[in-house]
């Protein structure tokens, strides 16, 4: 079902200044700058906001042409800050002032990778938890000691400020921001068009090693188990049953699963069930107990407990809020 093109687009400000990373700029543009309304994704208005309209130089001979000044941040529903090529580059004073004013207005702000350094320069991370690329955590601690640097996560939020780890974790954060604003199906549609994973939890480890060919073989076996579990979410899965499918002992399976995915088998399974339940709540009018059954929770009570832990809401309230926000009606009945 195509999204309504008459809906008011969410306004996204890409904050541009010399030194921003081209990769992060591309991620932001790919998530919010491509029109996918014909595939059911809501409309976005992405603007490149800078101190003036002069081209912003980036590494590799690239440049970014702003189409709005920093004053446009007053209209933005979300401000996204790319990472930096030189993570200690001082941001221009007008940029820092614009970020402070946006924060004072209550506008959500998200920083990808080394963009956390820009937020820290603005003082927005003082006394807050934040994450950046695993190789930069020591620099963030050293240069901004008032920031509580979390050593190992993909993304996190503290209040209305979001930060992410490096490179691919920026994609995860951007998709998560779509998910919490427009629903799991919209985020999954964008992920499919980008040929990337539709859902990785922010608490997964950001640095995962594959040191030997044996580890790669184990990763293949585990990938097959994950595919099976996703295709059969309604079935009762345990670590022992999944381990048997991978041809491993439960202890070995749990150890290898965490080494290759950054989370435990049960935490991963619950997160996938929550994501699947979100889609059913968005796209169907199935009763809550039926959604719980189809996604493997077994009971409405169990699903409600996990929704509270993952989304800080109940399944019923999630469905109501999603439909009020999007004005959508169920597709399948």
Topology:
Elements lengths: L9 E6 L6 H11 L11 E7 L5 E3 L3 E3 L3 E2 L8 E4 L11 H12 L4 E3 L3 H7 L7 E2 L6 H7 L4 E2 L5 E4 L2 E4 L3 H15 L1 H11 L18 H19 L7 H8 L3 H12 L3 H19 L4 H7 L5 H12 L3 H12 L7
Parallel strand pairs: 1-2, 1-6, 2-5, 6-7, 7-11, 8-9
Antiparallel strand pairs: 3-4, 10-11
Helix pairs in contact: 1-5, 5-6, 7-8, 7-9, 8-9, 10-13
Protein name: Helix-turn-helix domain-containing protein
Pfam family, one: DJ-1_PfpI
Organism: Streptomyces marianii
Task: State the shape.
Answer: globular
Strand coverage percent: 5-15%
- Roughly how many Å apart are the termini? 14 Å
The CATH superfamily label of the largest domain reads: Class I glutamine amidotransferase (GATase) domain
The CATH topology of the largest domain corresponds to Rossmann fold
Q: How many structurally independent domains?
A: 3
E-strand count: 11
Determine the mean pLDDT. 89
How do the strands line up in the largest sheet? Answer: 5-2-1-6-7-11-10
Domain HTH araC/xylS-type: 223-321
Keywords: Transcription, Transcription regulation
GO molecular function, one term: DNA-binding transcription factor activity
Protein name: Helix-turn-helix domain-containing protein
